[in-house]
Amino acid sequence: MNQPIPMEAFLAADSSMVLLVLAAVAVVVLVGRFLLKLAWRLVAMTTAGIVVFYAVTVVLPSVFALV
After folding, report:
1. CA 19 to CA 12: how far, in whole Å?
2. C-alpha to C-alpha distance for 8 and 14, rounded to whole angstroms
3. For residue range 7-55, what is the model confidence (pLDDT) as tens digits?
4. Rounded to an integer, what distance in angstroms lies between the CA atom of residue 46 and that of residue 54?
5. Distance (Å, rounded) from C-alpha 3 to C-alpha 14?
6. The whole model's pTM is what?
7. DSSP string, 21-63
8. Which of these, 61, 24, 13, 57, lies nearest to 5 by C-alpha position?
9. How many CA atoms lie within 13 Å of 18's alpha carbon, on the beta-carbon side?
10. d(Cα 67, Cα 57) in Å, to the nearest integer?
11. Which of the ends of the chain has fewer CB neighbours closer than 10 A, N or C?
């Protein structure tokens, strides 16, 4: 019942654990890059929206007031 576990079993467990950790790191990096691109796109759209809102509510009425 208390037989020694062969060294190959440890090596197989180690290599599969390393592959699992590498796969998890790859997934985290890819998801992180996607979320970062999404966040920058959100910032850009928000900035464009603020500029358009400012132009429509402040700049255009003052231009028409001068005419």
Report:
1. 11
2. 10
3. 666 666 667 778 888 899 999 999 999 999 999 999 999 999 999 999 9
4. 12
5. 20
6. 0.53
7. HHHHHHHHHHHHHHHHHHHHHHHHHHHHHHHHHHIIIIIHHHH
8. 13
9. 6
10. 17
11. N
- Structural tokens at position 16: 């599969």
State how far the Cα of 59 lies from the Cα of 16, in Å rounded to an integer.
63
Amino acid at 24: A
- CA torsion sign, 12 to 13 to 16 to 18? negative
Structure tokens at 27: 């997934």
